[in-house]
Amino acid sequence: MTRTHESAVQAQFGEQAQAYVASSIHANGADLDVLAAVAAQARPDRALDLGTGGGHAAYRLAEHARRVTAVDLSPEMLAVVAVEAEKRGLPNIETCTARAECLPFEDGTFDMLACRFSAHHWGDWESGLREARRVLKPGGIAMFFDVVSSEYASCDTHLQAIELLRDPSHVRNRNESEWTSAMANAGFRLRKTEKRRITMDYISWVDRMRTPEAHRIAIRSLQKSAAAQIQTYFAIQADGSFSVDALQIEASACCAHGL
After folding, report:
1. Strands 242-253 and 188-200: what pairing?
2. What phi-psi label fits residue 157: left (phi over 0), alpha (psi between -120 and 50 degrees) or beta?
3. Domain holding 132: CATH number?
4. Rounded to two decimals, what is the model's pTM?
5. Is residue 212 part of a domain?
6. pLDDT tens-place string over residues 156-165
7. Which of 36, 98, 216, 255 gives a 20 to 30 Å CA spacing to 4?
């Protein structure tokens, strides 16, 4: 039976919701500290965590915002986030099931928006960015974090291939140039960007997505047969663990952009 992209995302993440709350690579990181620092300075009245996943950006935003809305395509993921928010004593977090490309909010609803490791799953990336801009107030702050691909075609192809084998709901990791251009076209003004290297532990990386054994074998085959340039770029280790670049973007919503 043919399924939509949205149903593929829900199938991949719904049953693994608790794993994303517990995942150390999602629950920790310098990017979360940066997000919290920006939120502490901005003190937003309303903040949006777009593609909340395990809710880790929402938890940090909730320390400084009066009200936080955690949005995700997976109701199961949001249910886990609601329980975790209650455990953490964060009653100012609410949840909402929605696609990034079609947000059920009025123009200019939010003062701040965070989107962490979600955009590479969006069916229409450019539309998602435009929606993010639409629901932000003019001058509002947007923080995007995502794994980015290389400008080198061979490295880009390798990353997209292993990502898709691991997770059939994967759409695409964009490179930094694509992010910069798309953000400007969507109505954002970039303030600063920063790249960080993240090491992916192979076993936890595939276990988190319940990657089938046949796909695991294919991933390891691609890694072992990769050219020296690719092996070096991703720092592929003997056990399959590897490193990728994550891009942090801080931007503001332009004051004159359809509002």
Report:
1. antiparallel
2. alpha
3. 3.40.50.150
4. 0.89
5. no
6. 999 999 999 9
7. 216
